[in-house]
Design brief:
Length: about 425
């Protein structure tokens, strides 16, 4: 997205009405059939909701359509994300586990089946890191609002009165300046929002990380934290806090880097890169652990449908898709590195009769995907960071890439502020 001057990019939700009313219902029906009316649908395979925390341009005096994108869409989108989220329970249901007694081991060693089963007794981690992330984000937002101190800001006289003045210095900026009920763009800039000029010219690379922890408003914060709770807790229970912590932080960093390469005239905040990284990781987890799923086609088609919806939202005006793509690609590659599951035969090696040869921990293709992903991650980050700190514009090397963020139509102009 190109704008004439610096304005704040807020990561918000953007979702079409058709998708909201039609698509989730069809997916929900499919989920009910596959779940066989099993109503235990809250412990789902975590997946970010569509267009989570999309970058959104906020001009000083937004028009009515802009206000709709900023405030109404996030609410509708969160409801729809729940529908999409429920469908993915079928992926967890498709991982069937069995316990085997000592009489079964001979059959296990002679079996020629191409798939293996994960036991129901698979270790479940206690989730504590994701709740800590949520608490940290909320606490930081309170600090930001305290420092913003809307009642004592002189510019509010020009754009309107502060919102919720009973909160004192914690009151929100006027709706005309920030429809998401939050601080001003200048406050966010001071506290670490992503801005290309400060990152490259002033060598403030730390903004690539701090911008992930800032939020543009209460609506922005609420939607992101609800999504993180649904997604992150389930992932952390399955794979542990170390792997999910690395996945979340590196995905957010990857989204910030790619966004800075292609969008250089705006400032941005929010965790869209990190949340899209979780979506990418779930896709690669499905692929690298392909043999443990009994409902492979359903799981893959569901994930691909959600991915297409998420990324398609990015072509709307004022929505930055580069942070989404950067986070998604980083999470997708990290999923091959951090989320492979060992073969069942390797898990049962201690219970095998003496002298029985056990299987290797991972399948050959899992090792290949691991190596390829590590190479792509290292080379990708190296090239992107070198280009960024040399001050290069990604659009100069990819003349069609701007269409990934906004496709111009007769109804909107991608170059408008």
């Amino acid at each position: 997205m190109v704008v004439s001057n610096i304005s704040i990019l807020k990561k918000m939700e953007a979702l079409s009405i058709v998708e909201t009313m039609v698509y989730p219902l069809s997916l929900l029906n499919a989920a009910v059939r596959n779940l066989k009316l099993n109503l235990k649908i809250l412990n789902t395979v975590p997946i970010p909701s569509p267009s989570l925390s999309s970058h959104k341009t906020l001009s000083p005096t937004p028009s009515k359509p802009d206000l709709f994108f900023n405030s109404i869409i996030p609410t509708i989108h969160k409801v729809t994300s729940i529908f999409l989220f429920l469908v993915l329970e079928d992926m967890e249901s498709s991982r069937v586990g069995v316990k085997r007694n000592s009489n079964d081991y001979s059959n296990t060693t002679t079996s020629s089946a191409s798939t293996y089963l994960i036991e129901d007794t698979e270790t479940q981690w206690t989730s504590w890191l994701v709740p800590m992330f949520v608490v940290a984000n909320i606490a930081l937002f309170i600090v930001v609002m305290y420092l913003n101190d809307c009642p004592n800001r002189k510019h509010t006289r020009l754009v309107g009165k502060c919102v919720a003045t009973f909160l004192g210095r914690f009151s929100f900026e006027p709706v005309k300046e920030n429809p998401l009920f939050g601080p001003s763009s200048s406050t966010l800039k001071k506290l670490g929002a992503l801005e290309w000029n400060k990152v490259v010219v002033n060598h403030q690379g730390w903004r690539l990380v701090t911008c992930v922890w800032l939020h543009a408003g209460v609506i922005h914060l609420l939607v992101n934290m609800l999504s993180l709770v649904f997604i992150g807790i389930r992932l952390e229970q399955q794979f542990g806090f170390v792997r999910i912590g690395i996945l979340y932080l590196l995905s957010g960093f990857g989204g910030s880097v790619l966004s800075s390469l292609f969008i250089q005239n705006n400032i941005s905040v929010g965790a869209s890169g990190a949340l899209f990284g979780l979506l990418g990781a779930m896709l690669s987890e499905l692929l690298t652990n392909w043999t443990i799923y009994t409902n492979k086609a359903m799981a893959l088609l569901t994930l691909m449908a959600v991915i297409v919806i998420n990324l398609a939202i990015g072509i709307l005006p004022h929505v930055d898709n580069f942070a989404h793509i950067g986070g998604f690609l980083t999470g997708f590659l990290l999923g091959f590195v951090l989320l492979p599951r060992p073969q069942f035969g390797w898990l049962e090696r201690r219970n095998l009769p003496a002298g029985t040869r056990s299987k290797s921990k991972y399948k050959p293709y899992q090792y290949v995907l691991w190596v390829v992903s590590v190479v792509l991650l290292v080379s990708g980050f190296s090239v992107a960071l070198v280009m960024l700190f040399r001050g290069e514009n990604g659009n100069d090397h990819c003349h069609w890439c701007h269409y990934l963020s906004c496709v111009p139509t007769s109804r909107w102009d991608c170059n408008e502020n």
